Amino acid sequence: MKMQIKEFAKLTGVSVRTLHYYDEIELLKPAFVDTQNGYRFYDENSLERMQEILFYRELDFELKSISDILSSPNYNKRKALAEQRKLLILKKERLERIIDALDGATKGKITMKAFDNSDYETVRKQYENEAKQRFGSTDAYKEHAEKTANYTADKWQEVNDGLMSVLAKFAECMSNGYTADSIEAQVLVKELQNHITENYYTCTNEILAGLGQMYIADERFKNNIDKHTPGTAEFVSKAIEIYCK
To answer: If the chain, 245 residues long, is cut into consecutive pieces of 10 residues, what is the mean pLDDT of each piece?
Structure first.
């Protein structure tokens, strides 16, 4: 599925202007941009990402917090959804109390406790802080923030294109019959590690191993890598595992 930005905006209920802003702050990048006319296109992974963003927006999270959480290599979608459900239930219970208070008001009854939102705010803030701390306090995150602080849109495009170029080489390597433990594949792992270190943050073998696992555990990453050739994500993950051992 491929959608232009206006179609994607209509489907998600988010304005085109907002999508441009999300692209600018790296919260939601288009699946790809037509280099000839600059048109932005979105896909199924974009929809999944937008749904996660909207869940957090419904819970009053700031965009910066959402970006930090979703960018974390430790992000656990299943756990996040469970926590979001708890918060939405608290929000629902408050709305039900307000509706009851409204019904009572028609009969002359005054109930101020219905407007108390402290339980929800306490849990929401606690969850937000815990989620951000999983990644936000790490040296890798701090280095990433400093290194990319002055990246322009063109620089981001260059860096991300470079990353996709390395992953495309993995797909070609696999298609040519090389195995994950081959010299050819291992050289590409080193190239990938160097690219991340030069452009994002120092990619130690420990971090690299975690990325390799994420490439197959997170459907967004897996589907994006497999755009080159189905099975590429698994191939990259295996090559990284061998390299790090």
So the answer is: 90 92 88 86 91 88 81 74 85 86 84 74 71 57 76 84 93 96 96 93 87 79 85 94 92
Q: Is 48 helix (H, G, I), strand (E, B) or coil?
A: helix
Give dist(CA 223, CA 229) in Å, integer.
10
- Whole-angstrom Cα distance, residue 155 to residue 161? 10
User: Within its chain, how far is the Cα of 184 from the centroid?
Assistant: 30
* Cβ proximity of 190 and 242 under 8 Å: no
Residue whose pair of structure tokens reads 């936000």 in the numeric block: 136
DSSP assigned state of 28: S
Which of 95, 114, 94 has the alpha carbon at shortest distance from 104?
114
- Residues in the chain, how many? 245
